Amino acid sequence: MNTDLVQGRWKEIRGSIKANWNKLTDDDLEEIGGRLNELEGRLQNRYGWAREQARDSVSSFLRSVKL
To answer: How many CB atoms lie within 10 A of CB 17?
Structure first.
């Protein structure tokens, strides 16, 4: 996934991210700032997921929003 594309559209997809992963806070989203590795790390922390599960979840989400 092109991280530049995600970072460029971050403000557009923040609401969808928050709806998809409701354990992420507004502060989390602000600090993530479109960096996919940071999003995966936050998902690991908030949901207790392994890195691969977080990566798969992010990839699936990004496909669903057609980035």
So the answer is: 20
pTM: 0.89
Whole domain around residue 57: which residue ranges? Answer: 3-64
Q: What is the CATH number of the domain that holds 14?
A: 1.10.1470.10
Residue 21 DSSP class: S
- Residue at token pair 């936050």: 42
For the chain, the domain total comes to 1
Task: Kindly give the confidence (pLDDT) of every residue in the chain, 67 residues in length, as a single tens digit, with 9 standing for 90 and above.
Answer: 567 888 889 999 999 999 999 999 999 999 999 999 999 999 999 999 999 999 999 999 999 987 6
